[in-house]
């Protein structure tokens, strides 16, 4: 390689490792020699020299939900920009044993730091021993962790959704919730209830759900048959889609008879019928902040254990309107 480029081995090493103390002409000559000879940098050898693997571990419960998939994709994109790869460590089950198993496997992985997408309350009671000295960032947490946390402002999103429906003139707002085990669902439900209470409105009983269109559909069948219900805040867009389907089947017109708001602003939400009013959360920004915070730790920088909240915004479309005249 050095002979082909007409430089020293040290110069080849500096170019391969991305150092900037090489002239542009020399760098171009070395890179051309690398291409001609089919050279690829060896990450394992580089890790032995530097003590860094340039790999981020991601521990999470499930890939089934839209939010988790988008968060993982955003983390992978941000890691790639920083020239890091990711290693996925899924939890086998939503149990204490599943949590312990995932964290124990972390000891065996060649990673420089870890992003944990917790999502479930089971972590609160599990006796988990976190590896000492491993940089760590938590996504979707209670906010009580000793590690820095990144999350969407779930509470503000639910408040915006509820207040939007009240501002349109609805007496109150019903809620189809997410799973009881989810931090995000709990915060959205609590903020919905608080917004109604602050406005002096009745807080209806919560309709249970699990993020799925099926659970939204089941709740929607009950909602559609009750004319006194004029506004619904669904815990996510998929749940809202199920509510819309039930309304279409029963013949309950949206939004002239019932207004529906979702949460996520999934790519398909503008193609629901009618197009869905929803809360936009930036998974890309969550991924960027999580990786940036983790890299700061990996480089020895100081970070705080506070939760960094990513702002949300309400996207108003055609699924909400003033309540029907009485």
UniProtKB/TrEMBL annotation:
<dbReference type="InterPro" id="IPR046335">
    <property type="entry name" value="LacI/GalR-like_sensor"/>
</dbReference>
<dbReference type="InterPro" id="IPR010982">
    <property type="entry name" value="Lambda_DNA-bd_dom_sf"/>
</dbReference>
<keyword id="KW-0238">DNA-binding</keyword>
<keyword id="KW-0804">Transcription</keyword>
<dbReference type="InterPro" id="IPR000843">
    <property type="entry name" value="HTH_LacI"/>
</dbReference>
<dbReference type="Pfam" id="PF13377">
    <property type="entry name" value="Peripla_BP_3"/>
</dbReference>
<dbReference type="InterPro" id="IPR028082">
    <property type="entry name" value="Peripla_BP_I"/>
</dbReference>
<feature type="domain" description="HTH lacI-type">
    <location>
        <begin position="1"/>
        <end position="50"/>
    </location>
</feature>
<dbReference type="GO" id="GO:0003677">
    <property type="term" value="F:DNA binding"/>
</dbReference>
<keyword id="KW-0805">Transcription regulation</keyword>
<protein>
    <submittedName>
        <fullName>LacI family DNA-binding transcriptional regulator</fullName>
    </submittedName>
</protein>
<dbReference type="Pfam" id="PF00356">
    <property type="entry name" value="LacI"/>
</dbReference>
